[in-house]
Design goal:
With 98 residues, this protein is mostly helical. It contains 6 helices and no strands. The longest helix has 19 residues. The chain is elongated and about 45 Å long.
Length: 98
């Protein structure tokens, strides 16, 4: 769950993997069809979606920090971009159907 590290960057991950930043960027683009930042953002939002439903008593701020976002505002923006909903609305809708 490398994506949970809020300090994660393309260059730091490339170094950890023994690749150049350019090589890792090309690999992510070719294999996943999206840029590194978008991929990490989507992984973090996917993890947050699971926590919003499985841990209903956990605060949204706590979930945002647990999934690697630096701030609640960046979490809200990314969540809304990926899902079209705010984290609170997503949680309410999912918990209402259970």
């Amino acid at each position: 769950k490398v994506y949970q590290n809020e300090d994660l960057s393309l260059s730091s991950l490339a170094t950890d993997l023994g690749l150049s930043s350019h090589q890792l960027s090309e690999l992510v683009n070719a294999r996943l069809g999206m840029g590194f930042s978008k991929y990490i953002r989507e992984r973090r939002v996917t993890a947050a979606k699971a926590l919003l439903v499985s841990a209903p008593s956990q605060s949204i701020l706590s979930i945002s920090m647990d999934t690697g976002f630096r701030s609640q505002s960046s979490f809200y923006a990314a969540f809304k971009e990926v899902t079209g909903q705010s984290p609170g609305d997503y949680r309410k809708a999912r918990l209402a159907t259970e």
